[in-house]
Design goal:
Elements lengths: L1 H11 L4 H30 L2 H8 L2 H34 L5 H9 L6 H12 L9 H16 L3 H5 L11 H11 L1 H14 L3 H8 L4 H12 L1 H16 L5 H4 L10 H10 L3 H24 L1 H5 L2
Helix pairs in contact: 2-16, 3-16, 4-9, 4-10, 4-13, 4-15, 6-9, 10-13, 11-12, 13-16, 15-16
């Protein structure tokens, strides 16, 4: 009976489950993903392109976008370098506590971002465990700056006196590092684990040093994982909100990132201004994941 039904289906050349499954899948995605994303574009262009571009040209909006890009860039650089180093160590060496280290690196994925921001405040804030020791250093630097100014105003200008980390751009970078900590590591380590050791062993037998083997053999094989991890980390950091709103201070044109700008303008009733930046961030995320998808073959090429 089943054989007859199978032959009938192949003879007819039509599988009813195919269009039905696709329809159900798209129907579920429509109200949850597609329509919410479409709504920001529909609303953003409903008042005309001129008003949309005017909202993007606002100095506060431009500063927020620049701050998000810069802080996300430095957080991405740190996490890719650390992720590469940690993946190398944890893939090459077995030691006591190795699994615990992997769990700790992956932990920020499960921690709410508001908790992450609060934890950073408790550590680096003005009255935090470490932050309270930074204020005396600020006084020392101020006296040093005055001493340098006696000899050169030019050099004194470059002596920092602000040692507090919280409520500055440095706090945003710390928050981005924390919440995106496992992303690059999580992409790079599986490639390390599945990488063939034959080329590295051949390189060692030919007299290459460990650094030469890593630079010329291992690193090129990780190209796709490194780029993919960097893009994922950057995309996540640009959109970070929960931790940065606690540690940045959310001061316009000083410590207000793009997501915080959207939040502030929405609370002020300036929905068009908030929507303009929301469209930019949505397009930015779409571009990043398009690169990851369409350049996958090139990134994974040896």
């Amino acid at each position: 009976m089943s054989a007859n039904l199978s032959g009938f289906r192949h003879t007819r050349g039509f599988d009813l489950m195919k269009p039905l499954s696709i329809t159900v899948m798209v129907g579920i995605m429509l109200p949850l993903i597609l329509l919410p994303l479409a709504s920001i574009f529909i609303f953003g262009t409903s008042s005309g392109l001129g008003k949309f571009l005017g909202a993007l040209r606002a100095p506060e909006a431009i500063f927020a976008l620049k701050l998000s890009i810069v802080t996300s860039f430095w957080a991405t650089v740190f996490n890719v370098l650390f992720g590469l180093f940690a993946a190398y160590v944890l893939s090459k060496y077995n030691f006591w506590g190795r699994n615990a280290v992997i769990v700790i690196i992956s932990l920020p994925t499960a921690i709410p971002t508001a908790v992450a921001g609060f934890a950073l405040l408790l550590l680096w804030g003005p009255y935090g465990i470490l932050g309270k020791y930074l204020e005396p250093l600020s006084t020392v630097l101020l006296h040093f700056k005055h001493w340098v100014a006696q000899y050169s105003d030019f050099l004194a200008y470059y002596v920092p006196t602000q040692t507090q980390v919280m409520f500055t751009a440095w706090a945003i970078i710390l928050a981005n590092i924390f919440v995106t900590f496992p992303l690059a590591f999580g992409v790079i380590k599986p490639v390390f684990d599945t990488m063939s050791q034959s080329l590295e062993e051949a390189s060692a037998t030919m007299g290459a040093s460990r650094w030469q083997t890593f630079w010329h053999i291992t690193l090129p094989s990780l190209r796709g994982a490194i780029v993919g991890g960097a893009l994922l980390t950057f995309a996540r950091a640009v959109g970070e909100f929960g931790s940065t709103i606690l540690v940045s201070g959310n001061v316009a044109s000083r410590t207000q990132t793009a997501p915080l700008y959207i939040f502030a303008k929405f609370n002020e009733g300036q929905v068009e201004a908030a929507n303009a930046i929301a469209i930019v961030l949505a397009l930015f995320s779409f571009a990043i994941f398009s690169i990851l998808f369409f350049a996958r073959d090139w990134l994974e090429a040896e």
